[in-house]
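Sequence decides. Our protein:
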Amino acid sequence: SGARCGVYRKGCHGLPVRGRRVRLRRPDAGSEWLRGPHSTARFGASAPVSCRTARRLEEVGADEGVEVAVEVAGDLPLLEVDPVRIREVLVNLVGNALRYAPRGSAVRLMASLDPDRTAVSIAVVDAGPGIPAELQGRVFDRFTRSAESRGSGLGLAIARQLVEAHRGRIGAQSFPSGGTRIWITLPIGPT
């Protein structure tokens, strides 16, 4: 299938995107237009995870003693998304994973084509403590955070809004032995 995988420093692979406007509903102020650059990119600076962003995430991971690895299938079709907003989502998810991943572990960012070939699946997986059971059903709600969280409780809520504005879906899965998998699906074609 021509999959291209690698750790950031061994090879930079972005997600293919085509810039497009999407309507974003803000919970407190109606709506606003999001605009991405109107360009097409398979890899590189216009992709949601550019080489520059990837290197920065790797540096942050290294500071925390956590490896950041990327596995992006080489046969992904173009996505028509606002690449700036999708990049924000991915950077937020990887940043959260780095915050909770133990030293010596890895955070993985993976992207592949769904089996039905109608969407791209993206997942961020860490080996942290997982999401507490009492929060799992509302982890994407505004101001939801665990007792250990250093954040505001808005990052995942904003990520959900941005993904849904692209007609996508987002979800979370925690494992009994620890670790969390946050997944996104983005449809292929116009948003």
